[in-house]
Each structure stands twice: as C-alpha cells, then as structure tokens.
UniProtKB/TrEMBL annotation:
The lineage of its organism: Bacteria, Pseudomonadati, Pseudomonadota, Gammaproteobacteria, Moraxellales. It comes from the Bacteria. Residues 116-171 form the DUF4334 domain. Residues 19-75 form the GXWXG domain. This is DUF4334 domain-containing protein. InterPro entries: DUF4334, GXWXG_dom.
Amino acid sequence: MNIQEISQGKKVDAQLMIEFYDQLEEIDCAFMYGRWKGYEVITGHPMNGLLVQSNWYGKLLIDQETVYPLVLLNTKKTALFFIDPKWLPLNLDFKFLKKNAKSLAGGLKLLKTKDSKARLRMTEFRGKISATMIYDEKPIHDVFRKIDENTVLGWMDLKQQPQPYFFILQRDDNSSLGFE
C-alpha cells in the first residue's frame, strides 16, 4: 500500500490501513509544527464523509501548547478559521450527523475560536512512541506516523469508538490562504 492508493478517495480495507500504520516510523513533536492540509482515508468508518462535508482543511500546530485541531475553509473557500471541537456532538449517531451535515456545516461558524484547543505530546500507541495531538475537551487523541518528510498518517483514537478513523496530513506551510 502507498500514499497514492490511500489518497485516491477509494475505500481502503481498515485492517490493511492498521497494518500499514503499524509499519510507519514514529515522529517527534517538532516534526509536526506547521500548517497541514488534511484528507480522509475512506475505510467505512461511521465518520467517513463528515469532515469533507464540513469543509475541513486540516490542522495547525504552532508548538506543543498551541494546537488547532480543526481548521476549516470558509464557505467561499477564500480563508481559513478554527473551530472549537468541544461543541461537536460526537456522542450522536454518526448517520444522523452525515445525513444533516450540509445544513449543520453552515452553523460551524458559530463554533469559531481564536484559542488553541489541543496540545501535542509524545505518547505510546500500538508499541511505538510518537507525536500525539490531545484534544483539550474531547476524549480524542490523534496519533501521527511518518509517511515521508511532508506527509503523515493520523489515527484518531476516539474513546468508545473501537474502529480507527484514519486521515492523511500533508505539510502546507506555503499556502496562500489566510485566517479569518
């Protein structure tokens, strides 16, 4: 399996993704500093499609204490903004959220924040110690592994969700998009 196969938007077997993830190299926190463009990995996870429908752009990591876990594109796709994940109803049925994602996406502006909503730490996960984004007010850890110098694979470890949710981040420090 390679990055091209994963990023084509086609469904990938979840077990193959787990095996691929386990083979990847761990990374330190400093490697993650910067702006990252995100892409979902379609595995059949109940959350697949939610981030795309919400105009998810990616993540911004300034340092270990200044981390923006959810960066979205505005509706005109001309600027970026941060949202506070605290208010996202992840305890609801994902099918309901997907069915209503388009109408809910407009309301995401109400969750806008300027404050950092996560931090970055080294944690052990699946036998390796690697950079992990720990959300401030949600039981979520995004654990990163290196694909190459500009690409990482993230495993969103969400409490009470046994299935892993995978995403790809590509370094995007030279983007011309500004922040609202």
